[in-house]
Write a structure and sequence with these properties.
Elements: E1 3-9, E2 12-21, E3 26-30, H1 41-49, E4 53-57, H2 74-88, E5 93-98, H3 101-112, E6 117-123, H4 142-154, H5 156-168, H6 170-173, H7 180-191, H8 195-204, H9 210-213, E7 220-225, E8 248-252, H10 259-262, H11 264-275
Parallel strand pairs: 3-4, 3-5, 5-6, 6-7, 7-8
Antiparallel strand pairs: 1-2, 2-4
Helix pairs in contact: 1-11, 2-3, 4-5, 4-8, 5-7
Length: 288
């Protein structure tokens, strides 16, 4: 398995596990909370068949990557992504983030720029700002985050079950759009997460991306389920077309948070359409 070192903690390297398949224009996919690079299997199959090179990786603390005690803020996570792109010397990249992976994509573009990046997709997005504050009344009250962190600390497997039920809207879609076995696979993956990562990433959800979004200079697809119970559309995706120049906004009316699994055909079609458009010239006012 290929790994890249992104730092050290005490006597050990912090390493990210990644997979690199196919040939063609590169697509780098950043996984969601409690998941790893294997969660992209439905998108990977479609993109490989479409003639693209697909790179997936496990965020620090998840999957087969190292499990450090810290570094779960988005500046560090975006630096990990930058290290991977640099290690592979990628150019003309499409960055695709799902769930909290959208935070890495946006923060990467804000800090590291778009010299390597041609376009981006934000699926079930976290930005612009999930925390309710006086200047962000559409956000979520801090007590919800605090309660979730407390649940993770007290009984991480039970907290993971509750979270995944919300991701899939299991009460509505269980047995139809998601099988028991698919849910169980997600659950087993979630249990592999480092406890520090499970807690630290939820704290990172409260970071503010509004200033980052103003710096995005590539074509962007925003796609979200209309029934997302994890990152509600009114607090997240519905706001992004006003904050990202030229963004395309796709709402899947009955989609839950986990649209990359439950509504993979719709997501894959939108991704392939994004990949086939003609680069940065499609953004109004962009010099091309």
């Amino acid at each position: 398995m290929p790994f890249i070192a992104v730092g050290r903690e005490n006597s050990g390297l912090i390493q990210l596990h990644y997979e690199d398949h196919g040939v063609g224009p590169p697509v780098v996919m950043v996984a969601g909370y409690l998941q790893d690079g294997r969660s992209w299997e439905k998108q990977e199959a479609a993109l490989l068949a479409g003639g693209f090179r697909v790179i997936t990786y496990d965020r620090r603390g998840f999957g087969s990557s190292s499990r450090p005690s810290g570094g779960y803020d988005f500046d560090t996570l975006a630096a990990d992504l930058a290290a991977l792109l640099g290690h592979l010397n990628l150019q003309g990249v499409t960055l695709v983030g799902y769930c909290m992976g959208t935070g890495e994509v946006v923060r990467y573009l804000a800090i590291h720029g778009s010299s390597r990046v041609e376009r981006a997709a934000l699926l079930a997005p976290l930005p612009p700002f999930l925390l309710r504050t006086p200047d962000n009344p559409d956000g979520i009250d801090r007590v919800i985050f605090d309660e979730f962190i407390a649940e993770i600390t007290a009984d991480r497997p039970a907290a993971a079950k509750t979270y995944l039920d919300k991701c899939y809207n299991i009460d509505l879609l269980g047995g139809t759009r998601v099988s028991d076995q698919a849910w169980q696979n997600s659950f087993y993956t979630a249990l592999r997460a480092a406890p520090a990562a499970a807690r630290g990433c939820v704290r990172a959800w409260m970071e503010d991306f509004r200033a980052d979004l103003a710096l995005v200079r590539v074509p962007v697809l925003v796609a979200q389920g209309g029934q997302d119970r994890v990152f509600p559309p009114e607090a997240t995706g519905n706001r992004l077309p006003r904050l990202i120049a030229g963004a395309r906004h796709l709402v899947i009316p009955d989609g839950p948070h986990a649209i990359i699994w439950t509504h993979a055909d719709e997501v894959n079609g939108a991704l392939l359409a994004l990949l086939r458009q003609q680069g940065r010239a499609s953004i109004p006012g962009h010099p091309g």
